[in-house]
């Protein structure tokens, strides 16, 4: 609902840059243009220009030079009294909102596999470190999600993705590498322990349907080696593809870590292969501005410490 009183107030004051009130308070507190400039990290001429605009808006000199300092006028005293209650409270609230030590809830965007692979180890380290924060995982889909928009609009603090996202406001770092292996069900009627170029010609495959640059490069390597494969099933889920392999004669290429962790659960086996496709890189991306948050830096340090666990 639109507040009519707020709209009226905005219309009445739209000729005033509210940033000028910061300048006013800085000069009022220090009675010095130079000291106010130091406080606000701007030049003394910029302070003087702001005072000129304030004087024009209020129709009063506000500050009068006397000796080496400034003396406030009655209008300036009244303005300060008006601001001291509400404006200072607003500044305090804004400072608390953006305080480097306040934020304790961090959102991580990652594909289901990247989250399964990476987040448990990171969360375990967070618990051991004693950092008081909440981690929220939002599942991302490379087919639909735009990682750059996610970061720009602050929908997430960190993204783990198989695509690197380089920009002026973001930092992207390689985090881990995932090697792909071939699998089939343990009692496959034709494949024993090895998958060859010749044997692949008579087998059907599952396809991991994710449009990611890194993953597509690996899929292209597999296709170039084995030739055009016959796909019997496709899914964007590794778990679904593994379940299909368990109940069919299909062959699938999946991350080695996933294969070793879930081979007994899904009753499949890892096949030796005389071909090694290009590994898939997983990158970590975050906003540079987040480095101003102490809790985020603490979380980031833990994530980087965990990096060696994924080699």
TrEMBL record:
Domain HTH lysR-type: 16-73
Keyword Plastid assigned: no
Keywords linked to the UniProt accession: DNA-binding, Transcription, Transcription regulation
Keyword Transcription regulation (UniProt): yes
Signal peptide: none
Listed Pfam families: HTH_1 (PF00126), LysR_substrate (PF03466)
Similarity field: Belongs to the LysR transcriptional regulatory family.
Name of protein: LysR family transcriptional regulator
């Amino acid at each position: 609902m639109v507040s009519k009183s707020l709209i009226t107030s905005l219309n009445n004051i739209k000729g005033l840059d509210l940033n000028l009130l910061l300048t006013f308070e800085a000069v009022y507190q220090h009675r010095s243009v130079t000291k106010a400039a130091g406080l606000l990290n701007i030049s003394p001429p910029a302070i003087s220009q702001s005072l000129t605009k304030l004087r024009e808006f209020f129709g009063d000199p506000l500050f009068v030079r006397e000796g080496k300092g400034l003396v406030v006028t009655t209008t300036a005293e009244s303005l300060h009294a008006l601001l001291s209650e509400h404006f200072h409270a607003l500044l305090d609230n804004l400072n608390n909102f953006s305080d480097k030590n306040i934020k304790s809830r961090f959102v991580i965007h990652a594909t289901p596999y990247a989250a399964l692979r990476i987040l448990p180890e990171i969360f375990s380290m967070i618990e051991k470190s004693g950092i008081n924060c909440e981690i929220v995982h939002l599942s991302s889909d490379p087919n639909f999600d735009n990682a750059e928009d996610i970061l720009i609009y602050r929908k997430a603090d960190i993204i783990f993705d198989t695509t690197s996202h380089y920009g002026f406001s973001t930092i992207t770092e390689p985090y881990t590498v995932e090697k792909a292996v071939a699998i089939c069900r343990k009692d496959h009627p034709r494949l024993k322990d090895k998958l060859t170029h010749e044997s692949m010609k008579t087998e059907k495959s599952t396809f991991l349907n994710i449009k990611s640059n890194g993953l597509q490069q690996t899929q292209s390597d597999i296709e170039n080696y084995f030739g055009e494969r016959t796909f019997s099933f496709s899914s964007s889920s590794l778990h679904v593809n593994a379940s299909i392999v368990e109940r069919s004669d299909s062959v699938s290429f999946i991350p080695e870590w996933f294969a070793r962790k879930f081979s007994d659960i899904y009753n499949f086996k890892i096949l030796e292969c005389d071909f090694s496709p290009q590994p898939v890189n997983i990158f970590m991306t975050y906003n540079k501005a987040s480095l101003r948050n102490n809790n985020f830096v603490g979380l980031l340090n833990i994530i980087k410490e965990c990096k060696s666990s994924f080699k």
